Amino acid sequence: MAEELFIPTDTDRSAIYEALFPQLEALIGDESDLIANLANISAVLKEAFGFFWVGFYLVKEGQLVLGPFQGPLACTRIPFHKGVCGAAYTRKETILVPDVEAFPGHIACSSASKSEIVVPVFNRNGTVAMVIDVDSDQLDDFSETDAREIEKIAALISRKL
Question: What is the pTM for the complete model shown?
Fold first, then answer.
């Protein structure tokens, strides 16, 4: 795939994800470098949807460590038992938070973040290897559509681990 992205206009998120997925498959298909792939996935999601922050936290040294991302400065390390990222890691499931202020133990890397979705990415052994973290500066910005589609992206990444 060329470094070009087709994003449909005047459409709903489901259609945008549908258009993006084959492009993501092509983008990372022949690339073996994990960091390059995560960086491009972050860029695609940020560009396509205009989310406030999109990135990855990788499991390293007994905690979640900041990986490739798009957006403002972020927390560098997150304990497994802290915040939305830690909850997604610990529960091994997608966590959708309509209002981060109402989430017990939320870590405020930025006060501009209002809602969040975090999706675990599993390695071949079924262990959480990282999480995809997406923040919005709008309340209640994520839906089950986002959860389902970002889970598909997580599965695409899992195939590369």
Answer: 0.94
